[in-house]
Amino acid sequence: MHKLIPKALRHGDTIGLISPSSPSPDHEKIGQAVTYLEKLGYRVKPASHFNCQGEHRRELDRRKRHDLHEMFADRSVKAIFCLRGGSGATRLLEKLDYGLIAQNPKILAGYSDITALSIALYAKTGLITFSGPMLATELHSPSPYTEENFWKVLESTSTTHQIINHPSHPVRIYKKGSASGTLLAGNLTVLSCLVGTPYLPQMKESLMLIEDINEEPYRIDRLLSHFYNAGLLQRCSGLLFGQFRREAMAFDREHPLLDILSYYTDKMAPHIPVVAGLSYGHIDDFLTVPVGADCTLLAGEEQLSICMEPAVSSS
């Protein structure tokens, strides 16, 4: 697949704001996020229907698609940040103008329900997007770790970016090995909704990084079994687990979720590395990762290295 690499953000650029998933009632946090971006030297441009609400889904979806197209078509907008997750993004996929988006590649940032857009845009256009913080959930007051990782990925074009876990987040290497491929990251529940659709990219030679929030272990088991039964987990060159609660995963005590991760590790081919506990998900300190970027994983006895090629260009 030919990849579309967006241009890096520069101070003074305009950032478009959209709300393709749920609206947010917290106008104070939205205002704080806007102030935060402006203090960093960026201009901010809300879309026409930013944070809109409505009783009729058809009209609401039309407005959301209009905003997405508006921001991609606007030459003055250099990046697009999402308001929050929630639900609704999967309903937009069928009628998106992927040709328009491919002709105007630019940064799109968001996670959780925004996974639907990130994965679909990569599948249909090859555009690299960014699974990272959003306005109403993190950018109103990002932690230093979240902040550093977010801007490093969006602004740096010169060096390979290495994923470094937060020091308070333990990691378990379930299966040692090395792998390289396309990084496909997102929310497990949303990803499962894309199985069997044209909006899920080829999983062959991909590094799959998944997270979720407050799902019972039996549901995580069901979702992973769906991917396995569809023959998708087996095609990955590496499997990475992020976080599944608000607090970081702990490996020093028994938990049903750990049994499930171990079970699916055993079902993977011997040469496929599996790692759990990455600082990715609905947590205060979390990584921004480029969906669709080339990635290399090395998981050894006492060594973990995850490196990504620059996901933004200078021109």
**Proportion of residues in helical segments:** 25-40%
Main sheet record: 8 strands, mixed
Number of domains: 2
Summarize model confidence as the mean pLDDT: 96
Radius of gyration: 18 Å
Strand order of the largest sheet: 6-14-13-8-9-10-11-7
Please describe what this structure looks like.
- Belongs to the peptidase S66 family.
- It comes from Prosthecochloris marina.
- Keywords: Carboxypeptidase, Hydrolase, Protease, Serine protease.
- InterPro entries: Carboxypeptidase_A_C_sf, Class_I_gatase-like, LdcA_N, Peptidase_S66_N, Peptidase_S66C, S66_fam.
- This protein folds into two domains: about 15-155, Murein tetrapeptidase LD-carboxypeptidase, N-terminal domain (Rossmann fold); about 160-310, Glucose Oxidase, domain 1 (3-Layer(bba) Sandwich), CATH 3.50.30.60.
- The protein contains nine helices and 14 strands.
- With about 325 residues, the chain is of the alpha/beta class.
- The chain has an eight-stranded mixed beta sheet.
- β3, α3 (about 100-105) and β4 (about 105-110) form a beta-alpha-beta unit.
